[in-house]
Each structure stands twice: as C-alpha cells, then as structure tokens.
Task: inverse folding
C-alpha cells in the first residue's frame, strides 16, 4: 500500500508545515510520494532531501533581508520574495540544499502550479535538482500580484493554490491509498471570496481563465475540505491542522513569530504521532 503526503500552501503559515515535517523526519515516518503547493512545495522539498530544521533556519536568518522579502524587492524585480536570492543564492550558497540527497531519495516529489492561460492545475514531478527544478518550485509559490508569472516547460505559471489548494485527489490518482494531509488553516476554516478581484482583473485582464479560477477559488477550496473530511471518515486520510488560526500573515519579518508557528507545528505533530503511526500501519 502506497502512502502519500499532501502539503497545503499558505506563505508563512507554511512554517507550521515545516515543524510537522521535521517531526516526521525525526521519527523516520516515510512516504512514497509528496505533493506540495506553494509554501508546501518550498518547505516540503526538505523532506525529500532529509534536511531537518533547514526551513526554519533560513527563514529566521533571512526574514529581515530585503533581498529575501520586501516591498523594495517587489518594486525592483516584480517579486515580493526575491527570485534569485530565495531560489538560487540561498540554496546554492548560503544554506545549501542537499541536491545529492534529494536526487537519490526514492520519494516522488510533485509540485502544483496554475497555468494562467487555462486556469487549470499543472502537476510537475521534480527530477534531479537544477535551476529549472528550482524554478518549478518558485512557480508553485508565485502569489498573484506579489510575483511575476514564471515561464517554464512551455507554460506560464502562478501559485498552485489558485487551481488546486489541497491536492488529495491528485495524490490518490498516483496510487497512494493512505495519505497524510497537512493543512495550514484550522479544521473549521471556511474560505471566503477574494476581496482583490478588482486589482486581479486589472493586472490579469489578458488571462480570463485565470480570473475565473481566482474568483471561484473559495468554492474549490471549501469543496476540497469537504472531500478531505469524507476521506478521513473512510479511513484513507489523516489530517494534521493547527488548532486555531496561526499568528502569522503571508509575510513575516519577526523571527520570533516564525519560531512560534514552527513550534506549533512540531507540537501538533507530536500530539498526533502515535495515531498517525497506527493509521499508516493499518491495512
């Protein structure tokens, strides 16, 4: 029986996920495949490379660096999170991403992006780490308005959460019969329509299918939560979620706040550890 790990996005809420996956690695909880969306992709790749605490380490180290995340970066480059600094300088020079470990791991690692031309999800299985693979991860996390469209693989891409925020169905389609789903919102969260449609329509007027996906995202998201609850009831999904809204926004420059969100993830993962082990070992 194949086991899958599904990682929701949520920008800096993803540090909750980082705490969860570090506990999974420390306890040698293994999965056959991982799919990450946005921050779930950025931080989840460390599961495949086996680098415990790397996500919280570089986030707290660089959170006040204007090259990492700033309005200045947005004005200068078109990306709030600096593309070159975040996806190339840090992993290649400042907090080395273990490419050898990632490439040798048998775990399939997928990222989800949104095709701006169709408004549909694009699922990319990451191969050996190179500049292109890091660009796929960047595309998955490229939030509308706050990031440029990423052109790669013949696609024009933005944040995967627009089209498929919590890809449990996708993981099931890959043959994973039991899946751990890590959410970054509480279980009772209900997504509301975006309040930024006027700005979205102005910026992305050339992409009507993308605008439809953004306008209907709350419906897609809430339907996915409903599907996840039904999978839980059937015994095919296990959910780890924060007990209440996390004390962090999409952008955070306070390392202490980051550490607190990370600690919450670790705490909730440890509280669920024995139940998760039981879930994964039951046929």
Result:
């Amino acid at each position: 029986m194949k086991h899958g790990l599904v990682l929701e996005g949520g920008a800096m809420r993803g540090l909750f996920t980082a705490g969860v996956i570090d506990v999974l690695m420390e306890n040698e909880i293994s999965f056959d495949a991982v799919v990450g969306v946005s921050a779930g992709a950025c931080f989840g790749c460390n599961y495949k490379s086996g680098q415990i605490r790397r996500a919280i380490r570089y986030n707290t180290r660089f959170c006040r660096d204007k090259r990492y995340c700033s309005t200045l970066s947005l004005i200068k480059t078109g990306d709030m999170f600096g593309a070159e600094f975040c996806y190339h300088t840090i992993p290649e020079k400042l907090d080395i991403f273990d490419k050898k470990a990632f490439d040798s791991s048998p775990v399939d690692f997928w990222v989800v992006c949104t095709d701006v031309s169709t408004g549909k999800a694009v699922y990319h299985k990451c191969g050996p780490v190179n500049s292109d693979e890091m660009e796929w991860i960047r595309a998955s996390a490229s939030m509308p308005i706050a990031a440029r469209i990423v052109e790669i693989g013949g696609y024009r891409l933005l944040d995967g959460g627009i089209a498929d925020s919590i890809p449990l169905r996708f993981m099931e389609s890959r043959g994973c019969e039991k899946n751990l789903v890590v959410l970054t919102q509480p279980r009772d969260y209900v997504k509301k329509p975006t309040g930024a449609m006027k700005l979205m329509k102005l910026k992305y007027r050339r992409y009507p299918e993308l605008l439809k996906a953004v306008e209907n995202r709350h419906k897609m998201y809430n339907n996915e939560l409903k599907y996840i609850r039904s999978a839980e009831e059937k015994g095919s999904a296990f959910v780890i979620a924060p007990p209440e809204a996390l004390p962090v926004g999409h952008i955070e420059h306070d390392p202490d706040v980051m550490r607190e969100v990370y600690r919450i993830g670790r705490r909730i993962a440890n509280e669920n550890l024995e139940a998760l082990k039981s879930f994964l070992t039951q046929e």
